Amino acid sequence: MADNWHTLASPDEIPSPALLVYPDRVAENIRRMIAALGQAERLRPHVKTHKMAEIVQMQIKAGIGQFKCATIAEAEMLGQAGARDVLLANQPVGPNVGRLLRLAGWFRDVRFSTIADDAGAVGALAEAALAAGITLPVWLDLDAGMGRTGIALGQAAVTLYKLIDQLPGVEPAGLHLYDGHLHDRDPAERLAKWQAMMDAVRPFRTGLEAAGLPVPGVVGGGTPTFPFHAQHTDHECSPGTTLLWDFGYRDNFADLDYQHAAVLMTRVISKPGSDRITLDLGHKAVAAENPQPRVQFIDLDDAEPVVHSEEHLTLRTTKASNFKVGDCLYGIPRHICPTVALYDRAHVIRSGELTDQWQVTARARKLTY
Predict the structure, then answer these.
(1) Which residues pair with 316 in a beta bridge?
(2) What is the pLDDT of residues 182-193, one digit of tens each?
(3) Less crowded by CB within 10 Å, the N or C end of the chain?
(4) Strands 170-177 and 136-143
């Protein structure tokens, strides 16, 4: 990370801490995502990483027509951005049932769908959809080993899929499979575990079809298994981190070749010791759910975090004397998705110049609905 693709010609235009986004690099990541599949039609990228309408529109321009999201706000942002097929990959319960159906009623030209792993939730969704005059596609959410959501493969899953097929107000869209537990660094180990998982999933799908149940499609995987679903199945693929990339994925998945397209800009605000600098990059400016280091600073490889609080990050470095108060540093976060959600806007950088600001629209929990 030694070249200067990230630097700004006029950093004084931007207050810190700031999220910088580089559209040329985003566009290259989109190109690589499509190249991995050989076509755009099987891509259903997850928008949780960036939450920005402008990036959605870049993907639509590249030929991507369907998307995946985690919240109602993200679903509404997608509708506003021009998406025509939106999968809410969280089983809606409580008021979120009505919120999703209101979106489906308002954006009549958008195919909204969702996932389910519970008979009671399916029944409530079907009843509400029928009352609203809507037939909502529902994907059966399978637990293939992660243990977070989804129903285990077996007869109970078959019964639930039959329920989705039978109840008025809903219709089967297919199977949803998130295998986020497969994150081995060694691609061969990751592939072997993925193949073992698929050896169980394939006959389950075949059994549904043999029973006369329609399985229009499968949405499979996130980012770590994207290459496997892309190369070895006909699944729709839903990577997310590939759009912006981060150092956590870069270090863990060397077989995935994407560019860093988002950077954190911060400034030195104090020098509390001869070997220390303090930055304005606290917990509220970079995702803090992971252990340190939570950010890697470009051209400052020996930086060691010693204090991290709400508004401050103090580093120990042998290069402390090279910095003065007010100097800028640029860093790549370990986890870009929750980091983006900490900012209300991204500063758009082209050829070192600030050219625009994009609202991180779907960081909100609610837009209209």
Answers:
(1) 276, 304
(2) 999 999 999 999
(3) N
(4) parallel
Say which residue the tokens 């609080």 belong to. 309
CATH number for 23-244: choose from 3.30.450.20, 2.120.10.70, 1.20.140.160, 3.20.20.10.
3.20.20.10
Say what the alpha-carbon torsion angle 260, 265, 271, 274 is, to the nearest 10 degrees: 20
pLDDT > 70? residue 117: yes
> What secondary structure letter does DSSP report for 364?
S
Give 70-97 pLDDT, tens digit per residue.
999 999 999 999 999 999 999 999 999 9
Residue 3, pLDDT score: 80
> Which residues are bridge partners to 176 per DSSP?
141, 219
CATH number of the domain located at residue range(s) 11-18+261-363 in this protein: 2.40.37.20
* Domain range summary for the chain, segments of one domain joined by +: 11-18+261-363, 23-244
Q: Any bridge partners for residue 136, and if so which?
A: 170
Pairing status of strand 295-297 against strand 304-308 = unpaired
Give the number of residues written for the chain.
Answer: 369
Taking CA atoms, 137 is separated from 117, 174, 178, 269, 279, in Å, by: 14, 9, 18, 52, 48
Buried-state track 141-168, b at ≥16 Cβ within 10 A, e below 16: bbbbbeeebbbebeeebbebbebbbebe
State the pLDDT at residue 191: 98
DSSP string spanning 165-227? Answer: HHSTTEEEEEEEE--TT---SSHHHHHHHHHHHHHHHHHHHHHHHHTT-----EEE--STTHH
What stretch of H or E contains 103?
helix 95-106
pTM for this predicted structure: 0.97
The b/e string for 175-209 (b: 16+ C-beta within 10 A; e otherwise) is bbbbbebbebeeeeebbebbeebbeebeebbeebe
* Contact by Cβ (8 Å): 83, 56: yes
Residue 1: per-residue pLDDT:
42
Query: CA nearest 242: which of 89, 82, 88, 44?
Result: 44
